[in-house]
Design a protein that fits this description.
globular; single chain; 6 strands; mainly beta; about 70 residues; two-stranded antiparallel ribbon; four-stranded antiparallel sheet
C-alpha cells in the first residue's frame, strides 16, 4: 500500500500507524519532508485483517486516514 503526501511547504512530519484501539503500532516516517508530492510505502503484511489509522502530524495540522487491511 502506498500513501501519497502532497505538501505546499517544507514540514517536519510524523506519520504513524494506529490500530482500531488507538495503539501506535509503527512510525512510518519522522523528520523533515520537502514540499511537493511524496510516495511512502506502508507495509501491512505483518498485521492481521482489520481497520487501521494513519496519522500525519506537524506543528500546524493533524490529519487522520482510515485504512482497511484485507488479505
Amino acid at each position: 500500500t502506498h500513501l501519497i503526501v502532497d505538501l505546499k511547504n517544507d514540514a517536519n512530519l510524523e506519520i504513524d500507524l494506529y490500530d482500531i484501539n488507538g495503539r501506535r503500532l509503527k512510525t512510518l516516517y519522522q523528520g523533515m519532508m520537502n514540499k511537493g508530492k511524496h510516495r511512502l510505502l506502508v507495509k501491512l503484511q505483518d498485521f492481521p485483517e482489520g481497520i487501521y489509522f494513519i496519522s500525519l502530524i506537524n506543528r500546524k495540522i493533524s490529519r487522520n486516514l482510515k485504512i482497511i487491511r484485507i488479505k
